Amino acid sequence: xxxxxxxxxxxxxxxxxxxxxVGLPSGPRRRTPGLRREEVAVLxxxxxxxxxxxxxxxxxxxxxxxxxxxxxxxxxxxAESDHLHVLAGTAPNRTGLHRRDVRPSVxxxxxxxxxxAGFVMSAACEVLAWxxxxxxxxxxxxxxxxxxxxxxxxxxxxxxxxxxxxxxVSDAAEFRLSVVMQLRTTLARYPTDPAVxxxxxxLRDASPDFARLWERHDVQAAPMLTKTFRxxxxxxxxxxxxxxTLTDRDQYLxxxxxxxxxxGAEALALLNVxxxxxxxxxx
Length: 283
Description:
- This protein is of the alpha+beta class.
- It has helices at residues 3-15, 37-44, 48-55, 64-73, 78-88, 104-111, 132-137, 151-155, 172-189, 194-206, 208-214, 263-274, and strands at residues 117-121, 127-130, 226-231, 235-246, 251-257.
- The two termini are 40 Å apart.
- The protein contains 12 helices and 5 strands.
- It folds into 2 domains: 3-88, lambda repressor-like DNA-binding domains (434 Repressor (Amino-terminal Domain), Orthogonal Bundle), CATH 1.10.260.40; 104-278, Beta-Lactamase (2-Layer Sandwich).
- The model has no long low-confidence stretch (mean pLDDT 85).
C-alpha cells in the first residue's frame, strides 16, 4: 500500500468534482476546490475521519468494498478505479522488473507488415522492436542506446536536448499527456523497478512540464485513433493509429497504417522505398 500516493490520488480526484456533478447543492462560501472531504465520506457511506486519514496518508489499508464505495463517490473511471486498487495494495501488483524482451512471434509479425509502420513499446515507453517502415517514418532506432529509444525522454527532453519535435506529430500535447499517464500507471505496477522509478525522477527533475502533468494524477488517456507526421522528406503523413496490448509481457504493439489509395498510403509507400535514410528529424 502506497499511502502517500493513495492520498494524493484521492485528493486530486475529489478536487476535480463539483457538488452538482454528484447531485449536491453548491452552496455559498466554498473555500476548497471540488467536493469537501465530508461530502465524499457521506457519498461513500464511510466516516469522515476515516476518509480524511486516507487522504492524509495515515489510514489503514481499506477493504475492497470501501475502495469500491469511494470510487463510486468520486465517479472514477474503470482505469482510475483499477489504479486506486493498485495503490491501496488490493490488486495484483507486479513488484519485479518490467519486461523488455519481445516475443519472437511479435518480432516476426512486425516484418510481415510491409505497408504498416509498427513498433513494440515497453511499459516504460522504450521502443524495443520496430520494422523498416517505422524507422523510415520516425527514426532508425538501431544505432541508439536503449535510453535514447525512450519516447518519454523524447517527449520531455532535458537541458542537454532542446528539441521536442516528436517526429513532427500533430498531437504532441496529447501524446505528452498520455506518456505521463502511462508512466504513472507503470510506476504503480512496478514500484521497485529502478528503471521505472529512475525515469520518473529524472523527468520530474528535468522537465517542469512533466512535473506539472505528473501532479495531476491522471491515469486514463483518450485513445489516439489518427496521427499526422510532418516528415522532413515526404511532408505530411496522415495515418490511422492502433495500439494493441501484449498482456503477457505488459508491452504495446503500435501500428501506423493508412487506407489504400489515400495520400497517407502513398507517403508510406514512398518511405518504404526511401528507407530509414529519409528520416532526419532533429535530436
